[in-house]
Write a structure and sequence with these properties.
This protein is mostly beta strands. The chain is elongated, with a radius of gyration of 15 Å. Strands 1-4-5 form a three-stranded antiparallel β-sheet, with no helix packed on it. A two-stranded antiparallel sheet has the order 2-3. The chain has one domain. It has strands at residues 31-33, 36-43, 48-57, 63-66, 72-74. The structure holds zinc ion.
Length: 81
């Protein structure tokens, strides 16, 4: 299973232009962002499974956290552009 920390080319397919982010408190670029992942839901009589298909999405309002100082805000607060 691929590491979620690896840069993902899916991010370049987002609607807005490429931009960059850094912590507004300590200027670190080591950040984490909460993403939404769409998963196929397979239901049977007594169980269910979810199968993430790899697509994920986040936007200006998604929570972002600095790995160095733990500052958390929506990702827009981290945008450098
Ligand atoms: Zn920070």
């Amino acid at each position: 299973m691929a590491s979620s920390r690896r840069p993902d080319s899916n991010l370049l397919a987002m609607e807005h232009d490429p931009m960059s982010w850094q912590c507004p408190k300590c200027n670190s670029a080591r950040l984490s962002v909460t993403v939404q992942v769409e998963a196929k839901l397979t239901q049977s009589e007594d169980n269910f499974e979810t199968d993430a298909d790899g697509d994920h999405a986040w936007d200006d309002d998604s929570p972002m956290t600095c790995s160095d100082c733990n500052f958390t805000d929506k990702s827009l607060a981290f945008a450098t552009d």
